[in-house]
Amino acid sequence: MGKLTLDRILQSQGFGTRKWCGEVVAAGEVNIADEIVSDNRVFETRGLVFGIFGEEWIFRENVYIALNKPANFECSRKASHHPGVHTLLPEQFARRDVQPVGRLDHDTTGLLLMSDDGPFIHTQSSPKRHIPKVYVATTHDPVTPGLVASLLAGVKLHDEPAPLAALTCSMVDTHRIEIVLEQGKYHQVKRMLAAAGNHCVALCRSQIGGLKLDGLGLAEGEWCYLDDAQLALLKPD
Ligand code: URA
Predict the structure, then answer these.
(1) Considering the domain 132-208, what is its CATH architecture?
(2) Is the pTM of this model over 0.85?
(3) What is the DSSP string of 181-207?
(4) Family per UniProt (predicted)?
């Protein structure tokens, strides 16, 4: 973004309208390098760290976030039956249009990526990208070798022209199965389990590409920024 006036910097980070951000600057609520900056000076945005309302904020041109999604939150922008996942993030992020990368069902938990980088969201959610996603499903009936074999061989879903198969699939314990998918069709795991004769009672996404939820140390409902090394794990091999 290069150099910007302080009001535009605050606006770009989702603090509010340019007018409101200008008033915050004039009120002496912003400091840079321990100096209160109340005139609307220009700053280089790269590497900029500022304080606002007593809190430190690092300038980010775009944000890339991993959220450990709890159940009963919707990914949709106009959430209707449950609160939206954006309510789990600082309000600045909704103002800068941070959105989920793809969708998880309201009752699915686990790793959800979010960003305000349109091209990143588009590429990352493209079906052509073939990024494996790992799900752990809890099943109503016991997991059997036959269930694993069916999911590996492919099951026919009624609105899909060809059977869909898991990339890999293995039993975790009597009622849990790990399923790795490259596609992201609507309710895919639940529908595949139903087509294979079982029923999904709980679903958690544990990994996207090489990025594992476990390695992020996030409790349910918590989020973190992703750094370049973590983002590199989201690329196909
Ligand atoms: N498959 C499903 O059935 N639901 C999800 O949320 C994700 C994958």
Answers:
(1) 2-Layer Sandwich (3.30)
(2) yes
(3) ES---TTHHHHHHHHTT--EEEEEEEE
(4) Belongs to the pseudouridine synthase RsuA family.
